């Protein structure tokens, strides 16, 4: 896929003295729509933001792996432009007809192997990552800039990805939940965690992880349970953050009532509404809050399907441009929103007791032996 050259960097920086501003990112998944993430990342880089940590699901996990490997955003844009996404559909030849796809689902619980996706990501990380890197999360330990120590939980890693554990019936934060897979963060390959996070149910075969004790765990797309873990790096109790966390969401800004309207007219629409409610409630519990909306870049990508891997160059360029446009509107403001102001954000949302979940909902508690719920820890 080819596209016009990226625009020249803008003149503004997030700090008055021109020093790069540290930022954490939470990137939503969305299959091939992830091209839009690269456009938004490019704008943030041009404006002087330096990514400290990234959390993501599916396409957000891929983008996060590239960013935390030290690949500049502009180079990520170029990598994605040169990628042939049709090769991600690596099912056997007999899966091309609909009957073959159905048979693959019956035999393997998914049509495509996902092997090429893993190989592609591994090649990018080897080609552009730091020399001597192990390829595991041991490379991504994160020190607190003030103390020089490694914080506990999600705050101790530059990359956190989500995966849905079908065996245990719960959300996994990797590498934090590596022990549940019978391994350790230092031994968990980044590409394997990302491959699990991108396992779109039925489209890709699930990842079957066999731990040291022989226990098998089946992992699929993290978006099944949490496609946008926006609070994963938040400080507890509404404590004032030292730097911002930006969410980048691959959908338009929610309406005033923050609801997702499902018109139920029959069994098919009823089933779709049930699936949407089950898979989207946890994320909407957070994005429904005004403090989450205020720090989120919303990119309207409705024109493209997540599994549209036969994307044309024009469609890819549209996603990229939409990502840039949304990020610029977030930072500079437009007719719908004020320019981003970290001081104003902290004064409004983080100066007191901190945000609370919507009425009638509660924050999930971590299961025994699992990672802390999003928001546990320090920033």
UniProtKB/TrEMBL annotation:
Low complexity: which segments have biased composition?
Answer: 359-379
Q: Which GO terms describe its biological process?
A: lipid catabolic process
DGA/G: where is this motif? Answer: 221-223
Active site, UniProt feature = 58 (nucleophile), 221 (proton acceptor)
Which parts of this chain are annotated as the region Disordered? 348-379
Q: Report whether Lipid metabolism shows up as a keyword of the record.
A: yes
* Keywords, alphabetical: Hydrolase, Lipid degradation, Lipid metabolism
Name the InterPro entries for this protein. Acyl_Trfase/lysoPLipase, Lipid_Hydrolase, PNPLA_dom
Q: Name the SUPFAM superfamilies on file.
A: FabD/lysophospholipase-like
Q: Where is this motif: GXSXG?
A: 56-60
Xref: PROSITE patterns: PNPLA (PS51635)
Intervals of motif GXGXXG: 29-34
Q: Lipid metabolism as a keyword? A: yes
Cite the CDD domains for this sequence.
Pat_ExoU_VipD_like
The PNPLA domain covers 25-234
GO MF terms listed in the record are:
hydrolase activity
Source organism's superkingdom?
Answer: Bacteria
- PANTHER family, alphabetized: ANNEXIN, PNPLA DOMAIN-CONTAINING PROTEIN
For this entry, the protein name equals Esterase
Q: Tell me what organism the protein belongs to.
A: Brachybacterium saurashtrense
